[in-house]
Amino acid sequence: MHPYRSHTCAELNKSNVGETVRLSGWVHRVRDHGGVLFIDLRDTFGITQVLCDSDSPVFAEVEKLRSEWCIRIDGTVKARDESLVNPKLPTGEIEVYIRDMEVLGAADELPLIVFGDQEYPEETRLRYRYLDLRREVMQRNMKLRSDVVAAMRRRMWDADFREYQTPIITASSPEGARDFLVPSRLHPGKFYALPQAPQQFKQLIMVSGFDKYFQIAPCFRDEDPRADRSPTDFYQLDMEMSFVEQQDVFDTIQPVLTGIFEDFGGGRKVDQDWPQISYKDAALWYGTDKPDLRNPIKMQVVSEHFKGSGFAIFAKLLEQDGTEIRAIPAPGGGSRKFCDRMNKFAQEQGLPGMGYIFWRDQGEGMEAAGPLAKNIGPERTEAIRQQLGLEVGDAAFFLGGKPKAFEAVAGRARTVIGDELGLTDKDRFAFAWIVDFPIYERDEETGKIDFEHNPFSMPQGGMAALEGDPLEVKGYQYDLACNGYELVSGAIRNHKPEIMFKAFEIAGYGADEVKKRFGGLVNAFQYGAPPHGGCAAGIDRIVMLLAEQENIREVIMFPMNQRAEDLMMQAPSEPMSDQLMELGLRVIPQD
Asked: Where is the Aminoacyl-transfer RNA synthetases class-II family profile domain positioned along the sequence (predicted)?
């Protein structure tokens, strides 16, 4: 017999009754039934109930067992009494009578309990991650992640892609976040960087004549943490293709992701129609470039109804350039209590408040209520109701000013309204391509033109587009949103040196600086670069959605905490003095 097990803790059933078996695993829990000890023995595959009474030669040893001790047992498979069968377990028809036992690894007093659903502070969970990972939900999340990655690989190979690995140690290349720098011992005073993404390398693979590339790629960014973002590193399904247009990329990645969500989404509906929404419209309708389309609410501009109206705040606001009033329809939200609650929400978000109108039935017909309705009169309120398509029992909320100042709050308010009124379909994955991103923006304080989005995107219209107003230039850049999260980002690349130099020149970067920062890529484009494009899908975020988790750390094996610390391995740590000397570095104390 194998020294540790003849079966896993999920294999035994009635057909094994009478057999002598060997199992190894962890003591999940112990129950003492008056001289008979019942133990749930757990391994990564499942749980088997084992038992021991005073007739067993190892009863005294079994009595010493505590939760999470790692043990091996030899025993005889017995059928459970029919009334004691546990239909929730694959092994629920049997139990194993212990005849011999070996402690493989004793456990000290536990800082967190593996059995059950007790809540522990995240700091405790991360410090003892190896115990936290033994919990059923974490085992399930990590297996899901592994299965998703394997399925991604299979689907990419089936689509005629090959996987190529790109360097982990490379040159610094600003791509929107801070680099992690790595000092060079052989070249004192110089630094490598961990790649924020394989962006330049995958483009170089296309220049090298490989038509299709993909990689399950680690990416490193020194970012401020959020619930849906790791502060140090993450993984993405990275892909690139030659001789393609934007739609070709969409048509390639959609069946891959659709299949992943159908296979692992737990039966939730997966939308087959993925609309393409311009960045401008997404901001207007949803207040974000990663809209949750499960929520049917669409915001609208209603400025014309407030111009010259009796509501002086909005009327005066609209006299300023670049301002507008937007409405958030709220079907079913027509009560003063709900409206007051949403007004308070806006104040908690840092705004003075949020105007509202709600429509109620007064017996003799519909009436518009609320402070705004009184100020602007029945004719304007009726025009607003008709524009928004609202009825009795509905409401609308209003925000005004320069859109960039209130769009984000409006987007969050839309989400809260959809959730509280039960409008958002939670049992569904809804996707949307966000397209037509502006390449440039103007700094309102300095007036300087700079890149708003990916500087490597091909401008729509090519060189001719760069001869006009920079703020009107759109790029062949796109994101894929799903249920309020950005899952994919990509672009058709700017592969022509003359267009690239012009694009950077508009943002104030001379040709010499471009060559210095991106020399490898620029040089390669001098030698017959093909048109190419691609995208990258965030694996951590995809698994987070599939696992129905709200925090990305729940689907990462060994994540950092909110302060970018590894409490288990005690990183970051202070270097040894000889390490610093070898690298020619010294640490300057911070005041």
From this structure: 142-559
Q: What is the pLDDT of residue 366?
A: 87
At position 251, the amino acid (one-letter code) is D
pLDDT at 116: 85
- Cβ atoms of 378 and 372 closer than 8 Å: no
More confident residue, 224 or 509: 509
Annotated binding site for ATP: 221-223, 486, 538-541
Rounded distance between C-alpha atoms, residue 94 and residue 78, angstroms: 6
Annotated binding site for L-aspartate, which residues? 175, 221, 453, 493
Q: Regarding beta strands 212-220 and 162-163, do their DSSP bridges make them parallel or antiparallel, or are they unpaired?
A: parallel
Q: Token pair for residue 575?
A: 């270097």
Q: Which residues are annotated as a binding site?
A: 175, 221-223, 453, 486, 493, 538-541
Instruction: Give yes or no for a cis peptide into 87 (omega within 30° of 0).
Output: no
- Tell me how far apart the alpha carbons of residues 142 and 145 are, in angstroms, rounded to a whole number: 5
pLDDT at 72: 98
Residue 483: DSSP 8-state: T
Percent of the chain's residues with pLDDT above 90 = 86
Look at 178 and 236; give whichever has higher pLDDT: 236
